[in-house]
Amino acid sequence: MSESIGQRLARYRGAMGLTTATAAARLHCDESIIVSLEADRFSEIGARVFVQGHLRRYADLVGAPTAELMADWTAQGAALAAPDLTKIPRAPMPAVDSQAWGRRLGLLAAVVVITVAAWWILQSGGVSSQPAVAEPAMTSEVVDLSDAVTLSDPSMPIEVPPPATEAPVVASAAVAPSVPVAEGRVVLAVDVRADCWVEIYDAAGQKLYFDNVGRGGQARAAGQGPLRVLLGRADAASLQVGGRPVTIPAGFIRNSTAYFTVDAAATLRPFIKPEASTSEQVP
After folding, report:
1. Which CATH number applies to 185-280: 1.10.20, 2.60.40, 1.10.260, 3.10.50?
2. Of 77-91, 141-155, 236-250, which range is least confident?
3. Contacts of 164 (CB under 8 A, 6+ apart)
């Protein structure tokens, strides 16, 4: 009976004198992935594209016949569907406390009532006090003018001072400096130093790029941001956003794979790793 894929990998690893932990360290992945490969439990690793990438790298590391193993793997995988990253699971929304909302609405209503009452009291007080202050001032002015006319000589012309001209008030509107608004369109380039699976989607989930990029190659895409990106070998990839180099944070990379979004301002944010669907599971 011929050896399985995992048995051959384990035999070649043993011939090199490597432990599973040492092999995992060299491949920058979890030891559980090495154990799953050697036990032929490929479904524990995830989607077909990720199993294929880990299998190829592990075979190269231990000196196993990569082409032969990949042919056997293809025969077992039998054209399984590639993962659809447009359906990204969302984190569950926290439960809403109805009583807390009721308390908040009650507090808000109380604040509104107090504010309206205070405004009404201030408005009422201001209107009633204005006539009392204005009338004495007007009476005083009339008396003073009458005295001035009576005491003056009738033969002397009364000089009427020219009305004071008020300087025109020019309302200067402060012109706010124009703040450049980041365009929603994102232009992304991915350069790889090793074979790397690349998937890029726009904000609406439209597939912009979905293919394996060979060593030294480049994947380019442009679309409405933020773009969603999957890199099978993020440790061997570099990004450019709008022609500017952008570093992938080490915390985004898990088992050499990275899932993140990038916007026009070159801001990277991680997103939840999609679970492999039934059609993507490997027997």
Report:
1. 2.60.40
2. 141-155
3. none
